[in-house]
Design goal:
The complex is a heterodimer of chains A (213) and B (463). Chain A has 213 residues and is an alpha/beta fold. Chain A contains 9 helices and 5 strands, in the order ααααβαβαβαβαβα. By secondary structure, chain B is α/β, with parallel strands linked by helices. In chain B, 52% of the residues lie in helices and 10% in strands. In chain B, the strands form 3 sheets. In chain B, strands 7-6-5-4-3-9-8 form a 7-stranded parallel beta sheet. A two-stranded antiparallel sheet of chain B has the order 1-2. In chain B, strands 10-11 form a two-stranded antiparallel ribbon. The chains are: A alpha/beta (213), B alpha/beta (463).
């Protein structure tokens, strides 16, 4: 059952201020934080994703909705932590070594954040060693890698090999994307998935997590 | 006083009428390289090529060099077979080749050796354009005027000039650290701030130095820049239905101001092939431009396949990997495509039909996308006139955006340009955003400080 129509619509319209006031109002009315997330915010973001898929929304609408969702989550997270509840699936994302392109990676990161994932963005030109160190330290569920150049694609394989060598490969799912990348390439280098666009990347993360559960 | 304050602004159009704004000719033809003159009546192919998937490492360096040896030999073989009247090779350095300036210089010397040999053997007029990667944006916020990456970029430009580059270019990225998020969130004021305040300051600063490097290396031409990281990013995202087409088209027009700043510092052209804002620069400066369209589909989509050629002086394929196709390797194959494109344009011109061909190329694309609608000769002149009528890059950027908006609106009202309901909603938002922009740059800068102030380094922009 939807807990807050105001919050639902605020997220749908990408109105961060209204999302905050609606969240506070819902909490004041006694709605449990996790119920608010699962029964209002997640359905709102699902609807945003559907509108994007059907070309009713462009990326700006999608990201503004994500920003509104993130703001509301900022109020709820401390309450969840205090009550011992967990919600975050952690994702590490970066553009691989030698590649400075980042707008596609940034869109994926923002959309994942908007969908409620905890995203650690390592930036661009990220070496295999840096990916490994981040996985060791932050213990993510998912690693996303991006490349826009044919000459930097091999760094994706090197990163996966480095994760294997460090004994970390089985602890994470690895997704790759970027203009020259293909599903075939993902399979060749031993990635768990490939996404052609940012929205599909969010769906892929969700499906991989569901299959691993 | 900042660099931006000292720029010699363009106040008039070098090409004031549509009939003079035509492919192959410009008021200031450019002689460069080995007997090549660009913009004097003939369109030449500019072939751009890159590596197939391969890591660029010391261990793979011999293989990397072999690829470039092969590509240069095969491109020139096909060019000679087709009797092209002249050719430009463009070497776009990959990031690793700019990070290690000696690598970029080594490839430059290889390519120049092939061009010299071909010129001596076949008399082919030719030139080598070399474009290091703008690697300055590695930190957050990026340091655009200091630090190791900036030094390596200048080392790369210098060494490539010494190694045989005839034309130096760059696709500079100053302001992109603000433009990217503003674009993603559809924040028009942030886009204008990036394109009209930050980017022109950086382009001016960078090009004053590139012009100096060229002056110190006899015969090396300071080419020009491209808003690739800004307007082409928007165009590609629009193609993928991630951004509105109308927003991307307005961004294109506004991006001309930051690219123009290179010419105002002494760049001589030709502008970069991926600078679809090139015709505006040609109209204002009278310098030659390179363009890419249908024969660049190996690299990316564009809705500008024919119209992009209407005012070009060089005709490019953007980039193609060295992979095998049935008739040869892809760079050689795309040399042939460009050669025939240029033959048709040059034959039409020699028969007095250049204006007709230009108008057919324009008409075939013009109203099928907002991006094409702002690229016709008429639209180019409207945008160029709007730019030179203003006195600061900020006001010029707004004026260019307003001109593009008006052009699109007229197209919609005349039922030539058809927009979806969602595109129309964004069209209205753009109009409102243009109306809301403050007249003074400082007011905009202050109003965006909280939102974007942490994303850019003020000293990098003389602020």
């Amino acid at each position: 059952m939807m807990q807050s129509k105001d919050l639902y619509e605020a997220i749908l319209n990408g109105n961060a201020k209204k999302a905050l006031t609606a969240t506070e109002a819902a909490l004041a009315a006694g709605v449990a934080p996790m119920d608010l997330i699962q029964e209002t915010m997640v359905p709102a973001m699902d609807e945003v994703g559907r509108l994007f898929e059907s070309e009713e929304y462009f990326v700006p609408e999608l990201l503004l909705a994500g920003r509104a969702m993130k703001g509301a989550l900022g109020i709820l997270k401390p309450l969840l932590t205090a009550s011992g509840q967990k919600m975050a699936v952690r994702v590490i994302i970066g553009t691989v070594k030698g590649d400075l392109h980042d707008i596609g990676k940034n869109i994926v990161a923002s959309m994942l954040e908007g969908s409620g994932f905890e995203v650690i963005d390592l930036g661009t030109d990220v070496s295999p060693e840096s990916f490994v160190a981040a996985v060791e330290e932050r213990k993510p569920h998912i690693v996303c890698m991006s490349a826009l150049l044919t000459v930097t694609m091999p760094a994706m394989r090197l990163t996966i090999d480095a994760l294997k060598a460090a004994g970390l490969r089985t602890q994470v799912k690895v997704l790759i994307g970027g203009a020259p990348v293909t599903m075939q390439y993902a399979q060749e280098i031993g990635a768990d998935g490939y996404s052609e666009n940012a929205n599909a990347a969010v769906g892929l993360v969700k499906s991989l997590l569901a299959s691993a559960a | 006083m900042t660099i931006a304050d000292t720029i010699q602004r363009s106040t008039t159009l070098a090409i004031p009428t549509e009939d003079q704004l035509i492919y192959g000719v410009c008021p200031h033809p450019l002689s460069c390289g080995l007997g090549l003159t660009i913009g004097a009546g003939t369109v030449f192919p500019e072939v751009n090529f890159t590596l197939p998937p391969i890591s660029i490492l010391e261990s793979t360096w011999p293989e990397v060099k072999a690829h470039y040896e092969e590509m240069a030999a095969q491109i020139l073989r096909r060019a000679v077979a087709l009797a092209v009247p002249g050719i430009v090779l463009e070497f776009e350095l990959l990031p690793a080749m700019t990070e290690q300036p000696e690598w970029g210089a080594e490839i430059t010397s290889i390519l120049k050796r092939h061009l010299v040999a071909c010129h001596e053997k076949h008399g082919l007029p030719c030139a080598l354009r070399v474009t290091p990667t703008d690697i300055r944006d590695q930190l957050k916020p990026p340091l655009m005027r200091t630090g190791e990456p900036t030094q390596r970029l200048f080392d790369s430009l210098e060494l490539c000039a010494q190694a045989g580059a005839d034309i130096l270019s760059i696709e500079s990225v100053g302001g992109k650290e603000v433009h990217d998020p503003a674009l993603m969130y559809g924040d028009f004021s942030g886009i204008v701030f990036a394109l009209g305040v930050l980017a022109p300051r950086d382009t001016a600063w960078l090009w004053s130095r590139i012009v100096s490097i060229c002056a110190a290396n006899k015969g090396v031409i300071p080419g020009a820049d491209s808003a690739c990281g800004f307007a082409n990013t928007a165009m590609q995202l629009a193609h993928q239905k991630m951004l509105p087409e109308v927003l991307a088209a307005v961004v294109r027009a506004m991006s001309a101001v930051r690219s123009l700043a290179a010419f105002e510092q002494g760049a001589l052209g030709p502008s970069k092939d991926c600078a679809y804002e090139g015709p505006v620069m040609k109209a204002i400066t009278g310098m030659p431009i390179s363009m890419e369209g249908k024969s660049a589909s190996c690299a990316h989509f564009s809705p500008l396949g024919n119209i992009a050629a209407a005012m070009c002086d060089l005709w490019s394929n953007e980039s193609v990997q060295n992979v095998r196709l049935l008739s040869g390797n892809a760079p050689e194959v795309f040399t042939e495509l460009l050669a025939y494109d240029c033959r048709l344009m040059n034959a039409a011109a020699s028969h007095g039909g250049a204006l007709d061909l230009r108008d057919w190329m324009t008409a075939s694309d013009e109203w099928l996308s907002p991006q094409a609608a702002v690229l016709s000769p008429a639209a180019t002149l409207r945008i160029a006139k709007a730019i030179v009528a203003e006195d600061t890059p900020y006001r010029q950027t707004i004026a260019a955006g307003r001109a593009a908006y008006d052009l699109l609106k007229e197209g919609v009202e005349a039922e030539k340009l058809h927009l979806s309901r969602k595109e129309q909603q964004w069209f209205a938002r753009i109009e409102a955003s243009l109306d809301e922009l403050p007249a003074e740059e400082a007011v905009l800068v202050d109003s965006l400080e909280e939102q974007y102030g942490g994303l850019y380094d003020k000293p990098s922009y003389g602020m």
